[in-house]
Design brief:
about 10% strand; 2 strands; 3 helices
């Protein structure tokens, strides 16, 4: 008759089956990339703000908001573009550049208003892209940190039954 030995369980710590050096490197690269995205976003934001400020554009009193303030950011640039459109449409009797006759003298005013609005909207888009880049930078840092942290825990614990004599 076979002898029944009492069994017990023990934890065995084993090295991982695969090396995780590349995973750790990817985590570090994610963190570095995230920091660079944030730095570039800040530089872009500052550059666009400096350019808008250098133009010395003052929002007129009949704008929907920020009357009398200087255009220095995305919201004020949008408000200024809106009031330019309003003034241009008043001057043209509600017609857009494309709707005016080619020999209409107001057409040049409408074209200039359109160019100014496009420039202001370009700055609004630039602010949006900078904000998006900063947000992606934060996500890259978080993902890089998580990947690096997971790679720092390469120990596998397995339960196995041991026969004790």
């Amino acid at each position: 008759m076979s002898q029944d030995l009492p069994t017990t369980t023990a934890d065995a710590v084993e090295p991982p089956a695969k090396k995780v050096g590349l995973v750790k490197a990817v985590g570090v690269l994610g963190i570095i990339g995230g920091v660079l995205l944030i730095v570039v976003a800040i530089i872009a934001w500052i550059a666009v703000t400096m350019q808008l400020t250098a133009e010395n554009i003052t929002i007129p009193d009949d704008a929907v908001a920020f009357q009398g303030q200087q255009v220095t950011g995305p919201v004020t640039a949008y408000v200024q573009a809106d009031i330019i459109n309003h003034h241009a449409l008043q001057a043209s009797g509600g017609k857009t550049y494309a709707e005016l006759d080619q020999d209409d003298p107001i057409r040049a005013t409408m074209m200039q208003a359109s160019f100014l609005r496009a420039s202001l909207f370009t700055s609004v888009v630039a602010y949006g892209v900078a904000l998006f880049a900063a947000g992606m930078g934060v996500l890259a840092i978080l993902f890089g940190w998580a990947i690096h942290r997971l790679a720092d825990v390469p120990v596998v614990v397995k339960r196995s039954a041991l026969a004790v004599e």
